[in-house]
């Protein structure tokens, strides 16, 4: 007995039950009533099929990158917070440069994620550079760029009050950093926004047009993949507090790359994860994220940078503003 029709044939518009296996997903299916119609519709469906397959892969890449960075920020949390948003005052202290994320101040999962990534939108591109390259290497026909953009009116604003350092807000003066992915075959574009939670942007992957219409006011700058890694690496070599903060972050992120390499040796190339069936993908994703998180946790447990930070503070007192100005000059030199 033939299966019950579940859709409409894309070619002849009759009831159909066969699905294009190339681009089938939980949210997207193209139906055909048989092989003849599927073959006849191939010229019309070819590009859409490629884009749907690529979008499925990019969704997984964005998912892994976003969770990896949330884990990284929570493990390497270094802000002595007094308050997040409207939560009552409650100080968190630590004997190390690193401290526990004040989860008790986050009134919901959304607030937690927003606080973790607030004012750190350039870091994922730097710290996850190796992860993104490993996930997209091989047969994925895409071009990846790093963008700085200004957003439209936002649905959420994060304010973090730091112990002894006043209040910082992520709006309206911050440029937002995102990734633009372009298909080499169809020229379709997507956005990966790893830190959008701070502005109420919950999804990590967007079609370019949707993101542009809903969130983006203007593109400020476009860089080749690797710009933010270059910038933070240069900044980490500067003396003073600004430089040391970047240096500690880059050292911690180096453990991510080591964990990725080690995991790939024991399991499979990261790019192969993206094409697995859903059950196998979830297993490998969890294993990879756990390996990365364990590596960073071990680094944090083994290192205390208090002495270096005392020296950096003394340098800043002696040469006020020098570190910040040098970082600005690095960015200007690269852009020119």
UniProtKB/TrEMBL annotation:
Single GO term (MF)? zinc ion binding
Specify whether Nucleus is a keyword of the entry. no
Every copy of the MYND-type domain together lies at 9-49
The source's superkingdom equals Eukaryota
Q: Which Pfam families match?
A: zf-MYND
Query: Is-annotated flag, keyword Metal-binding?
Result: yes
Alphabetized, the UniProt keywords read: Metal-binding, Zinc, Zinc-finger
What is the designated name of this protein? MYND-type domain-containing protein
Q: Which organism is it from?
A: Bipolaris victoriae (strain FI3) (Victoria blight of oats agent)
